[in-house]
UniProtKB/TrEMBL annotation:
The name this protein goes by in its record: ANTAR domain-containing protein
Keyword check for tRNA processing: no
Entry's Gene Ontology molecular function annotations: kinase activity; RNA binding
Biased composition (Polar residues): 1-11
Domain called ANTAR: residue spans: 198-259
Record-linked Pfam families: ANTAR (PF03861), GAF_2 (PF13185)
Alphabetically ordered keywords of this record: Kinase, Transcription, Transcription regulation, Transferase
């Protein structure tokens, strides 16, 4: 399985976890005071993403980047979804995130895969003391991953993906940062769900257009065969079908050859627009 779309853009940023100049978290009271405005900022950023970005790949690359922007303590992020029944890492924030996801696919185990299957939130405080994934864990440690937080992405009551945040130090995803990533994942689930639904709709439309174009070509070939053989439409279709079976080729391809041979050029199928 290949990693796809490492995001390098820097557009609307997700609200960052506020920290003091000395690197320590600000007081709990100050974090609570900012919670309402941060939530509003996150909602606005997600709405902007839905309205601004068209392709599913861009949607998910932006989600990965925005998740990494939640805090400078996050080393990398990755988004994994199920498409066509297969795991697909559609976006990572940087090479560490790509490695963290790909190592799980290679080992066929890890927090992203488990979160997708169970819909559970999974926290690894220190991979050097982790024993749930015996194949994946030592490989992750060798690549510099020390901790992680995996949040199931849910939309319309179903788990549609998993957001993994990776840390290069132990115990990164505790307290306020853990809460911030979980809250981001809750909001991001709807965006991921919309992106996947849009991708499915585009695929369905493309399939419909292909079917309409094939039907148009077959109709043209039927007309040609009817004129040449002085037969009915049913008889002409039977002739094309026998040619398709005898040559082990699709009926639409046989029809395209008939039209091209008679007209001297490829068939015109009309214009189908979304």
């Amino acid at each position: 399985m290949a990693i796809d779309n490492t995001s390098t853009t820097s557009r609307a940023r997700a609200p960052a976890l506020h920290r003091t100049p000395h690197g320590g978290a600000v007081s709990r009271r100050a974090d609570a005071d900012r919670a309402v405005s941060d939530a509003a900022d996150a909602t606005a950023a997600m709405l902007d993403l839905v309205l601004r970005v068209d392709s599913v790949e861009e949607h998910l690359a932006e989600v990965a980047r925005m998740a990494a922007d939640v805090s400078p303590d996050i080393g990398a992020t990755g988004v994994t979804v199920l498409r066509g029944g297969e795991l697909f890492s559609v976006a990572t924030s940087d090479p560490l995130g790509a490695a963290g996801d790909q190592l799980q696919y290679d080992a066929r185990e890890g927090p992203s895969l488990d979160s997708l299957t169970t819909g559970e939130l999974l926290v690894v405080r220190d991979y050097r003391a982790e024993d749930r994934w015996p194949t994946y864990t030592p490989r992750a440690v060798a690549r510099g991953v020390r901790s992680s937080l995996t949040v199931p992405l849910r939309a319309a009551g179903s788990t549609v993906g998993a957001l993994s945040a990776y840390g290069t130090e132990p115990d990164v995803f505790v307290g306020a940062l853990r809460d911030a990533v979980v809250d981001f994942g809750r909001r991001a689930g709807n965006v991921v769900g919309i992106a996947l639904r849009q991708a499915e709709q585009v695929s369905l439309v493309d399939d419909l257009h292909a079917a309409m174009e094939s039907r148009s070509v077959i109709d043209q070939a039927l007309g040609i065969v009817m004129a040449q053989q002085r037969c009915t439409a049913d008889e002409a279709f039977a002739i094309l079908r026998r040619a398709s079976q005898g040559r082990n080729r699709r009926l639409a391809d046989i029809a395209r050859d008939v039209v091209t041979t008679v007209s001297g050029g490829p068939p015109r199928t009309g214009r189908f627009t979304r």
